[in-house]
């Protein structure tokens, strides 16, 4: 499990946006990149080339779930 302290200092390596914890992944709050990073054995894999870009609908749904207001 990722601690709150670690989550507070981590950011998306591509956009420098905040991240939200979603299951065993971290999701960027940046609307342009919409990156999802895996967490394996409690270690975030923060490599852009290993991340997944979410489609807009999935990303918007996750932002809403986490109470993040999206400005388009």
Provide the residue-averaged pLDDT. 95
**What name does CATH use for the topology?**
N-terminal domain of TfIIb
Number of spatially distinct domains: 1
The count of strands amounts to 5
Output the CATH class name: Mainly Beta
Architecture, CATH level 2? Single Sheet
Number of helices: 2
Question: What percentage of the residues does DSSP assign to strands (E)?
Answer: 25-35%
Helix content: 10-25%
Global morphology: globular
Uncertain stretches of 5 or more adjacent residues: none
Radius of gyration: 11 Å
Secondary-structure element string: HEEEEEH
**End-to-end distance:** 32 Å
Structural class: alpha+beta
Largest sheet: 5 strands, antiparallel
Please give a structural write-up:
With 72 residues, the protein is of the alpha+beta class. 22% of the residues lie in helices and 25% in strands. Strands 1, 2, 3, 4 and 5 form a five-stranded antiparallel beta sheet that branches. The model has no long low-confidence stretch (mean pLDDT 95).
Describe how the helices and strands are arranged.
Elements: H1 4-9, E1 19-22, E2 25-28, E3 35-40, E4 43-44, E5 52-53, H2 56-65
Antiparallel strand pairs: 1-2, 2-3, 3-4, 3-5
Features:
N-terminal domain of TfIIb; globular; alpha+beta; 22% helix; 5-stranded antiparallel sheet; 72 residues
Short description, anyone?
Helix content is 22%, strand content 25%. With 72 residues, it is an alpha+beta fold.
């Amino acid at each position: 499990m990722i601690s709150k302290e670690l989550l507070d200092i981590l950011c998306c390596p591509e956009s420098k946006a905040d991240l939200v914890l979603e299951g065993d992944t971290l999701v960027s709050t940046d609307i342009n990149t919409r990156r999802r990073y895996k967490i394996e054995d409690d270690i975030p894999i923060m490599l852009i080339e290993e991340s997944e870009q979410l489609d807009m609908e999935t990303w918007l749904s996750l932002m809403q779930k986490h109470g993040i207001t999206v400005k388009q």
